[in-house]
Amino acid sequence: MSPAPKTSFLTRIRKATPEFHPSEKRLADAIVHFPGQLAGYTATEIAKLAGVSNATVTRFVRKIGYASFEEARQAVRAEQVAGTALFRVGGDGTPSQGLVARHLAQCHGNLEQSLAALDEAEIAGLVTAMVAARRLWVVGFRAGQGFARYLAWQVMQVRSDVATLPRDGETLAESLAGIGPGDCVIVFALRRPPRQLDQVLRHVTGCGADVALIGDLTELGAGPVRWTLPCSTTGAGALFDHVGVMAICGLLAAAAIERSGPAGRERLSAIEAIHDSLDEI
């Protein structure tokens, strides 16, 4: 699922900087602050913004390893889709008109797309496994870590043996070593994942655990997992919008609490009793 290692657009510019002529350096300075602009501008427009000639733009893109301006622009668009925030930032730092309305509309769209894509039977099967599994592991890298912690925190109210991975101070191997048959593993696969994501998925499925994948990656359904829950995270600005991911977390947690039955209620009661005895809340 994770992309093959490649040289990013900005890395190409930095490596080629010593070879630039003064006009090419001026163009580089204009581009590196707002590289996302390259995706929507023509070569002539970029040249005008930087105060250089079209010939300078042509030389520039060739020096950083692209055959043409169009190839460079497609590379920038690919990095926008992949989730690089710098490539999604606007030009002058001024908030655009209708900011709240635009974000609200995008949140509604992501929420609707994320929940509409869910299958009732698949959710029921996953929730059953979350409650009945020997151990429940919730895995999240980068942006996914916060959602992993939230989901684990909610579910641990009605069952024990819930862990969030990776844990602070541990290597991946140390974190994954305890997973085995009879376990349920939920993995958050959100853009831009670490390159080890594929290896992690192969490892946990090979351990005999039942695995669920929640995320927005294009190749999400290609993994060797039992459940796949796609979500939409298209952003109205520089960042991705994760309202759909949170909605799926809330749905799974609420369903797991309901599915836990008498055993879950007994654990909830025990937690509240301890709260009272500690005068904690």
Explain this structure.
This protein has 2 domains: 80 residues, Winged helix-like DNA-binding domain superfamily/Winged helix DNA-binding domain (Arc Repressor Mutant, subunit A); 177 residues, Glucose-6-phosphate isomerase like protein, domain 1 (Rossmann fold, 3-Layer(aba) Sandwich). Helices cover 52% and strands 9% of the residues. The chain has 12 helices and 5 strands. A 5-stranded parallel beta sheet has the order 2-1-3-4-5, with helices on both faces. Helix 2 crosses helix 3, helix 2 packs across helix 4 and helix 8 packs parallel to helix 11. The N terminus is likely disordered.
Keywords:
281 residues; Arc Repressor Mutant, subunit A; Rossmann fold; 12 helices; disordered N terminus; single chain
Q: Between the first and last Cα atoms, what is the distance in angstroms?
A: 43 Å
The appropriate CATH architecture of the largest domain is: 3-Layer(aba) Sandwich
| Class by SSE composition | alpha/beta
CATH homologous group name of the largest domain:
Glucose-6-phosphate isomerase like protein, domain 1
**Estimated share of beta-strand residues:** 5-15%
Low-confidence stretches: 1-5
CATH topology of the largest domain: Rossmann fold
Apparent shape: elongated
Radius of gyration: 23 Å
- Please tell me the total number of domains: 2
Q: What is the H/E order?
A: HHHHHHHEHEHEHEEHH
Largest sheet: 5 strands, parallel
CATH classification class of the largest domain: Alpha Beta
InterPro entries: Homeodomain-like_sf, HTH_RpiR, RpiR-like, SIS_dom, SIS_dom_sf, WH-like_DNA-bd_sf
GO molecular function: carbohydrate derivative binding; DNA binding; DNA-binding transcription factor activity
Domain HTH rpiR-type: 7-83
Pfam families: HTH_6 (PF01418), SIS (PF01380)
